[in-house]
Design brief:
Layout: H1 10-23, H2 67-79, E1 83-84, H3 94-113, E2 119-124, H4 131-151, E3 159-165, H5 176-182, E4 184-189
Parallel strand pairs: 2-3
Antiparallel strand pairs: 1-4, 2-4
Length: 193
C-alpha cells in the first residue's frame, strides 16, 4: 500500500504549528530560594551600654551598742535570774541549769547583734571561809556557768568571768537563807575601763 502524501502549503503548516503550540503544556517555573551559605563568624554586636547602678548602702549595725542601747540591754539583763550554788560547791544544780537555759536565748540575741560586745559572768560566795578560798570558789562558779552558756550556743569570745568571792553580798544577815542568796553567779554587761 502506497500512501500518497500531498504537500501541505504554508498556511497548512502554520495551522499545524499553531495547533501544536496550543497543545503544548506550559511548565510553571518556580524560583527557588538561594542555597544557604555556610555561616561565617559574625562579629558580635557591640554590648549595650548598661546603666551604672549606684551601690545600695546597707545598714550595718555598729559593733558596740550606743549608751541608749546599753540601757536597754541592762534592762534585759536585770530580768535574767542569778544561778545559785550549794554550800562549798561550784557545780551547777539542775535548777541553775534550767535558769541558764531560759536566759540563754536573750543573751544570744544580745551577743549576735553586737559581735564585739561582751558580757561578764560574776562568781560570788557567802561570808564563810577565807578570802583566798572564796575568790577561787567564786571563780570556778563563774567558769562553770560560762561553760554551760557556751554549750547553749553563746560565743566564748564574748563571755568573760570574774570572781568577787565574798565581796559584794546581796544579803548581810548571818543565816543560811541569806548565805544561800550570796552563793551565786550573776551576768552583767562588761564594764568599760
Amino acid at each position: 500500500m502506497k500512501m500518497n502524501l500531498k504537500p501541505i502549503g504554508t498556511a497548512g503548516l502554520l495551522s499545524v504549528l499553531a495547533l501544536l503550540a496550543s497543545c503544548h503544556k506550559q511548565v510553571a517555573t518556580v524560583s527557588l530560594p538561594p542555597a544557604p551559605q555556610p555561616e561565617t563568624a559574625k562579629a558580635a554586636p557591640p554590648p549595650r551600654p548598661q546603666p551604672t547602678a549606684q551601690p545600695v548602702a546597707q545598714y550595718q549595725r555598729p559593733a558596740m551598742p550606743s549608751e541608749a542601747t546599753k540601757a536597754t540591754i541592762q534592762s534585759l539583763i536585770d530580768r535574767i535570774q542569778d544561778v545559785y550554788f550549794e554550800y562549798d560547791k561550784h557545780n551547777l544544780t539542775p535548777e541553775a541549769e534550767s535558769t541558764l537555759q531560759s536566759d540563754a536565748k536573750t543573751l544570744r540575741e544580745i551577743l549576735k547583734d553586737y559581735p564585739t560586745y561582751k558580757l561578764t559572768v560574776e562568781g560570788f560566795c557567802d561570808e564563810r571561809g577565807s578570802d583566798e578560798y572564796n575568790i577561787a570558789l567564786g571563780d570556778q562558779r563563774a567558769k562553770d556557768a560560762k561553760e554551760f552558756l557556751e554549750r547553749l550556743g553563746l560565743p566564748a569570745s564574748q563571755l568573760r568571768t570574774v570572781s568577787f568571792g565574798k565581796e559584794k553580798p546581796v544579803c548581810t544577815e548571818h543565816t543560811e537563807s541569806c548565805w544561800q542568796r550570796n552563793r551565786r553567779a550573776h551576768i552583767t554587761q562588761e564594764q568599760s575601763s
